[in-house]
Amino acid sequence: MEKFSCYFKILIFIILITSCFLIANSKTLKPKKPCKQLVLYYHDILFNVTITNSANATSANVSNPPNVLGDYNFGMLVVFDDPITEDQNLVSTPVARAQGFYLYNMKSKYNAWFAYTLVFNSSEYCGTLNIMGADIIDQKTRDLSIVGGTGDFFMARGVVTFSTDAVEGLGYFRLKMDIKLYECY
Amino acid sequence: MEKFSCYFKILIFIILITSCFLIANSKTLKPKKPCKQLVLYYHDILFNVTITNSANATSANVSNPPNVLGDYNFGMLVVFDDPITEDQNLVSTPVARAQGFYLYNMKSKYNAWFAYTLVFNSSEYCGTLNIMGADIIDQKTRDLSIVGGTGDFFMARGVVTFSTDAVEGLGYFRLKMDIKLYECY
Amino acid sequence: MEKFSCYFKILIFIILITSCFLIANSKTLKPKKPCKQLVLYYHDILFNVTITNSANATSANVSNPPNVLGDYNFGMLVVFDDPITEDQNLVSTPVARAQGFYLYNMKSKYNAWFAYTLVFNSSEYCGTLNIMGADIIDQKTRDLSIVGGTGDFFMARGVVTFSTDAVEGLGYFRLKMDIKLYECY
User: Fold this and answer.
1) Among residues C168, B33, B11, B81, which one has the least CA distance to residue A74?
2) Helix (H, G, I), strand (E, B) or coil at B121
3) Complex ipTM
4) pTM of the model as a whole
5) C-alpha distance from residue B163 to each of A63, B145, B179, C163 (Å)
6) Do C64 and A60 touch (CB under 8 A)?
7) Which DSSP string corresponds to chain A?
8) Which of A122, B23, B93, C152 might form a disulfide with C127, Cβ 3.0–4.6 angstroms?
9) Residue C131 and residue B145: Cα distance in Å, rounded?
10) Angstroms from C159 CA to nearest CA on chain A
11) Cα R_g (chain B), whole angstroms
12) CA-CA distance, B142 to B131, in Å (whole number)?
């Protein structure tokens, strides 16, 4: 009887170990909540070629887009080094820079695509987050992918939710970026 | 004897648990098959500046490439908002849009590089997949990386295999995209 | 007494299994060392429009950057197909090509952003690694993200550490790329 009990325990044990192996390799479970979350604001001041705002500008169109593909800047590609703040105020001390580019890619409405790096260099964080995805401007919120990280964000992955926080013509816009990491090392 | 048997079991147990830990943290096993697979077709109609096809065009060259670096459009950068269909027919109802860009980057042959987002908005899927990688055109099939996803494809990773399905000069080409996700949440 | 010992063992067992499950799903542990490491050198020979070096050039500026945003090539976007060697010698047989682009994005100093694919086609490796991130040139070393891989690098993730190895004006520069994969399949 004692022997039977031991065999039984070993059987249960093997079943549990196997299921553990399977879970370790499939990552099928949806994480309930982020392992880290940050809300940050992105400020873009586009260089205006005719009125010189080069001292304040943080981004510039570097493309040669055709003007005849609709009225929504199709093909315009903007390189940026934009300040990232913890509140909505443009002149707050930046906690990071956003470096990369966006482009407009629709004929029928404003729609953009982003690829950039958040470069943190503050007392709180040192490191980078790399982000790419579609900025479907006419949706109230839209999700882009955080595809990697370095430093304090070593190997991170997650989702960043954009929402438009302010638009002042083509010259300035502000995005709220709700950063949620679901893989933290 | 009974005591020895118990110690032995505990030893085996610790070895198995340790190996389980190691596997959980190293992800060394190759997944046998995708957790999700989709075959889709990508249609690109390049804007032809001289003959106005702006009503049909879904992409445009926005760069200033030098003409003297070979004969294969080195440096040409094309922004696109291309329809994605489930069959090869250009006029089928799109199940997604592909938004992003490709560029040509070889002096000696046609060779491209893609970074884009598949934006799904159909009855079946809502969400995005973010993709980047080399499109080595002279290979029958070539693999790019799916580096992230949102919505129904939350946190997905995988590989997309391109194969050229049709080419009509510079004006139109169609790619078959075999999407295989190996990490699904 | 024997029975108590068995219950105790089962309890320990359940605790360990549970912790194993948790670790498998949260990936909170920092891997001690890469599962694969490679040191490679990247050579970039920029096309010089005025003096024709088109035979040797491996990259070209394809943008229309504004000249008035500082003195550090803000907005310049360079498409490349650059040789990758195992030693510092430009004329060594390449083990891979780096295909993609970089752009300059600062008004006050040289600072760049990269997105590219390492295309391996040697006796040792066949496959690709996809990389993006900020190249903060004034730091001795800077980390970019390896966001995906294919072929021999199927589904890989990691970090690549750049360090400037040589600069000869705008015409040539060499980067040391220390590639560390932390997720290997």
Assistant:
1) B81
2) strand
3) 0.85
4) 0.87
5) 29, 15, 12, 36
6) no
7) -HHHHHHHHHHHHHHHHHHHHHHHHH--SPPSS-SEEEEEEEEEEB--SSS--TTT--EEE-----TTS-SS-TT-EEEEEEEEESSS-TTSPPSEEEEEEEEE--SSS--EEEEEEEEEESSS-EEEEEEEEEE-TTSSSEEEEEEEEEETTTT-EEEEEEEEEEEETTTEEEEEEEEEEEE--
8) C152
9) 10
10) 7
11) 23
12) 13
State which H helix or E strand residue B50 sits in.
none
Distance CA C69, CA C74 (A): 6
Supply C164's token pair.
């400037």
Residues 83-142 of A with CB under 8 A from C: 99-101, 115-117, 119, 127-128, 130, 132
Q: Which of A21, A31, A145 sits opposite B130 (nearest CB)?
A: A145
Q: What's the CA gap between A155 and C165, in Å, rounded? A: 25
The answer to whether the CB of C50 falls within 8 A of the CB of C37 is no
For chain B, which residues make up each domain, given as ranges? 29-184
Q: Is pLDDT of C25 > 60?
A: no
Query: pLDDT digit of tens for each residue in chain B (185 aa)?
Result: 555 566 666 666 666 666 555 544 444 445 679 999 999 999 999 998 776 788 999 999 999 888 778 899 999 999 999 999 999 999 999 999 999 999 999 999 999 999 999 999 999 999 999 999 999 999 999 999 999 999 999 999 999 999 999 999 889 999 999 999 999 98
Alpha-carbon distance values, A136 to A79, A106, B96, B99 (Å):
19, 10, 13, 10
- Give the separation between CA B105 and CA C57, rounded to whole angstroms: 12
Q: Tens digits of per-residue pLDDT, C36-52? A: 999 999 999 999 876 67
Q: What does the pLDDT look like over A67-97, one tens digit per residue?
A: 778 899 999 999 999 999 999 999 999 999 9
Instruction: Check: CB of residue C73 under 8 Å from CB of residue C110.
Output: yes
**From A9, which residue of chain C is nearest by alpha-carbon distance?**
C10
For chain A, the C-alpha Rg in angstroms (whole number) is: 23
Q: Is the dihedral of CA A75, A80, A86, A90 positive or negative?
A: negative
* Residue (of A118, A115, A131, A106) closest to A78 by Cα position: A115
Q: Do the Cβ atoms of C74 and A52 come within 8 Å?
A: no
Q: Is the separation of the CB atoms in B152 and B128 below 8 Å? A: no
Please name which of A64, B29, B103, B69 lies closest in space to residue C155, comparing C-alpha atoms. B29
Asked whether the beta carbons of residue B47 and residue A29 sit closer than 8 angstroms, the reply is: no
Name the CATH code of domain A29-184 (choices 2.50.20.10, 2.60.40.2550, 2.40.480.10, 3.40.50.720): 2.40.480.10
Residue C37: per-residue pLDDT: 97
